[in-house]
């Protein structure tokens, strides 16, 4: 296993039971989360993508299944904003300290309010990015919610 990341360090420091999974990251993949789920042989609903979203004047983290689409209107409403839009790549990388394809909800440079799709709680464990391309952390979604102070919300629309 390669050296740790701020994400793996944050999960370990929080005392969360977890497992690390490495896979061959494909930089040419159209949808990174779906490629990771396929490479790891798991259902895409169990692999959560980490999206950085601007809701009004606030940047938030949205965690949802890799095969789902984010409902920006629902997220904006839950965040108390009139609108929401995806954060541009340079801003997301600068804010989190991670590269796209390796953005984790854990260990970000600037902690942002986090929303986790309610569908994640249908699974005993889910996977989130481990802080670098090709690394996923498997853990209980309730542990993610507790450690990040995440808000459980219906933010995904039907699978895409």
Please, could you describe this protein's structure?
With 160 residues, the protein is of the alpha+beta class. It has five helices and ten strands. The chain has helices spanning 6-13, 32-40, 72-79, 89-96, 141-148; strands spanning 19-22, 48-55, 58-65, 68-70, 84-86, 113-117, 126-129, 135-139, 151-153, 156-159. The strands form three sheets. It has a five-stranded mixed β-sheet. Strands 1-8-7 form a three-stranded antiparallel β-sheet. A hairpin with a 5-residue loop joins strand 7 and strand 8 (135-139). The mean pLDDT is 95.
Show the helix and strand layout.
Layout (H helix, E strand, L loop, with lengths): L5 H8 L5 E4 L9 H9 L7 E8 L2 E8 L2 E3 L1 H8 L4 E3 L2 H8 L16 E5 L8 E4 L5 E5 L1 H8 L2 E3 L2 E4 L1
Q: Quick recap of the structure?
A:
The chain is an alpha+beta fold and 160 residues long.
**How many angstroms separate the termini?**
33 Å
How many individual β-strands? Answer: 10
Strand order within the widest beta sheet: 5-2-3-6-9
Content of β-strand: 25-35%
Average pLDDT for all residues? 95
From N to C, what is the helix and strand string? Answer: HEHEEEHEHEEEHEE
Form type: globular
Question: Any idea what the radius of gyration is?
Answer: 14 Å
User: Helix amount, in percent?
Assistant: 25-40%
Q: Quickly count the helices.
A: 5
Going by helix content, strand content and strand pairing, the class is alpha+beta
Weakly predicted, low-confidence segments: none
| Main sheet summary | 5 strands, mixed
Quick tags:
5-stranded mixed sheet; 26% helix
């Amino acid at each position: 296993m390669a050296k740790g990341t701020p994400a793996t360090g944050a999960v370990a420091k929080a005392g969360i039971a977890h497992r690390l999974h490495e896979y061959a990251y494909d930089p040419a993949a159209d949808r990174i989360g779906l490629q990771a789920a396929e490479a790891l042989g798991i259902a895409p609903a169990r692999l959560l993508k980490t999206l950085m979203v601007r809701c009004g004047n606030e940047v938030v983290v949205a965690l949802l299944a890799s095969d789902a689409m984010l409902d920006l209107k629902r997220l904006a409403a839950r965040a108390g904003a009139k609108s929401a839009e995806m954060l541009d790549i340079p801003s997301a990388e600068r804010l989190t300290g991670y590269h796209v394809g390796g953005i984790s909800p854990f260990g970000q440079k600037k902690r942002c309010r986090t929303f986790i799709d309610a569908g994640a709680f249908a699974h005993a464990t889910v996977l989130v990015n481990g802080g670098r391309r090709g690394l996923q952390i498997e853990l209980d979604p309730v542990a993610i919610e507790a450690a990040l102070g995440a808000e459980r919300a219906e933010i995904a629309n039907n699978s895409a």
